[in-house]
Design brief:
heterotrimer, A alpha/beta, B mainly alpha, C alpha/beta, A: alpha/beta, Rossmann fold, 6-stranded mixed β-sheet, 4-stranded antiparallel β-sheet, 21% strand, globular, C: 6-stranded mixed β-sheet, EcfT (chain B), transport (chain B), membrane (chain B), cell membrane (chain B)
Amino acid sequence: MEIAVRVQDVSFQYANQSDYALKNVSFHVRTGEWLTIVGHNGSGKSTIAKLLTGLLQAEKGRIEICGIPLNEETIWKVREQIGIVFQNPDNQFVGTTVQDDVAFGLENRGVPREEMTERINEALKKVNMESFLEHEPHRLSGGQKQRVAIASVIALRPRIIILDEATSMLDPRGKKEVLAVIEQLQKERQITVISITHDLDEVAKADRVIVMNKGMVVEEGTPEQIFAHGEKLEELGLDLPFAVKLSKRLKDAGFPLTGDHLTVEGLVNELWTLYLKM
Amino acid sequence: MINSMIIGKYVPGRSLIHRLDPRTKLLMMFFYVFIVFLANNVWTYTLLTLFTLSLLLLSKIPFSFIVKGFKPILWVIVFTLLLHVLMTKEGNMLFQFGWIEIYDKGVQQGFFISLRFLLLIAITTLLTLTTTPIEVTDGMEKLLAPFKRWNMPVHELALMMSISLRFIPTLMEETEKIIKAQAARGVDFSSGPFSERMKAMTSLLIPLFISAFKRAEELAIAMEVRGYRGGEGRTKWRQLTWSYLDTLFMLSLISLSILLWLLRS
Amino acid sequence: MDIIFKNVEHRYQAQTPFEKRALYDIDLEIKTGSYVAVIGHTGSGKSTLLQHLNGLLQPTKGSVTIGDRTIVGGKKEKNLKPLRKKVGIVFQFPEHQLFEETVEKDICFGPINFGVSEEEAKRKAKECLSLVGLPEEVLTKSPFELSGGQMRRVAIAGVLAMEPEVLVLDEPTAGLDPRGRKEIMDMFARLHQQKQLTIVLVTHSMEDAARYADEIVIMNKGTIVKKGTPEEIFSDVTSLMELGLDVPETVLFKHLLESKIGEAIPSTCLTIEETLQGLQTLFARVKKK
């Protein structure tokens, strides 16, 4: 398996704070994988996104993106590999219209104009925003703006997309739209996804989950493995999905379930089998 | 209510005037300001008015929109008119009422100057009604490009302008939200003694500034991550195309100036 | 203090080419001491509705009665300050309204605007700060040194210090982490119970509506399409889904299981506990057979 991101022993401290935001953090992300990083506000998870793109420099440790060690000289090369979708849909919309916004990144890279038009249309089609080319940002919903942000990112053809709490300011509908688009991209294009979040759906969609607390990685595993920790997770800023909670309660009450279900559908199916057997 | 102020002036359309290159429109407006001063008699003013009216007609914009552009400075026009009518003491006296004496020269002067004002406003209003703000920015960037040689930050200015345009509606919305939030905390923005009004303004402006700074910071980060490192080596997606129409309009403006020059007294 | 909406309509920018009808045919009664959740998509009119609760917006038709004040459509009502004291609104992202040098001054801002003495306001500030779960030493700090979650709490304290009789909450937990969300929602539930505060909660979260509210109002495209107790609302899962709204997962679970086994679970299933009990009764009954 190819490694897309490797973080080794990284520490970081903000200038005016006494505690380390990150302490000896190590992890890796495989190419094409969806890694979700969770932890409550202030756990250091957002610092990671800034370090990976060289917006902040690690005090100690090594970061490698697609085989390129991150340092002063390679910073722009590394940024070509990574796209970020940030939290606030408004504050990352640079262009005056949807198509101008997607064009912005391409202009920065010096892409010739004919190719730009093609890539803008293709990217907007991917996020189902192709009928909004001329729309101004204040006429779009939060979810639509975030989808434009994703289009702006994928038009640059990065190998890694970071979602930095990208769904936290959206309504349920907007959130669903955004996650559906990301999921499809990951499948179709083998894009590596790193999502920093406390959203349970983003956790459940992940291949692997890292839990951060006080600047350290405290847990790592598949969503199933992570949710198996139960109440302990709630202290670390992660809710348990309803299906997991109910599975646990049912097992405690003597229902012979095989395990904790992540989805309501899974749980319903097993209860149905139990019901039929009786 | 705030929305109707600055934004939304542009009236979408496909008329000849809409289709002109923004550089043409900017240049025409620029030279028009000088040409207006060539007119000084009935003939020249008639010619100028006809030219301007035909531009307005070509734009297919309802006349009421143009008239709206006059409203804010209507009193200036009325004032100039009265000033000239009452103060000029040349030519034949038309009538006298107490200390008020009105001369024909005065009436003519007042009329011409007011007309000059109206024409200038009509032309600038026409520009904003038929050109999107971003087209104006692009046009300016292109027209000012030669000044880069003397270290004028043309690209940066244009980027600043387009980002401001992008954020005006966002900040307006934000202003409205904060006004409402503070009103819910008992702030009265429209009445009360001066000191209380100052406090009310502070409760609006501080949150607005803080949020604007935060937006600027986040926007700068987003721009950097998307590869922005200044104007060097950038390509441009928005292209301006100069067509025969543009040449035609520029030529018509030149002919107009020549005619005005010949007809002025 | 009861709030009654009678046939309310609201048009933005009325009598202009930009006129937009945001609300129509609104009939609603919010009783003293109740906890009402208003649910709907973005653009369903719920924000417009909530701004009628303290006269920030006035109806273009119909009437809104808040306690002893009635605002009639079309007539511009003045002197709304007493109304705004009685109905406190916590807007979405309320931390964006903070502006004073210290937390104490910011919390006192509302009460002083409503004519409370400085001394009294300071006493209330202290009290409300502890209500929202912040330590007293925060009072002297600048609100801008605090974390996002703490700023949110300060802003909420600023509204509570006005001692409103009705508290209106617009997505009060947006953007918070799960722990912060739960703490804040539990605090509002406590205030509701202990102080008999009337609460109107505008939310996207069906979970919160099911857990905390005793009445739910569902809005769609500018009008009320459904209202009732959580039990009533969630007994009809299909019509909620038709509106494109989420259903609490407990309710979804009940719905799915019932349609599989073809038998009703004897419980409303609004919480995990109820669901568990329902399942136990169901399975015990089946066993006996």
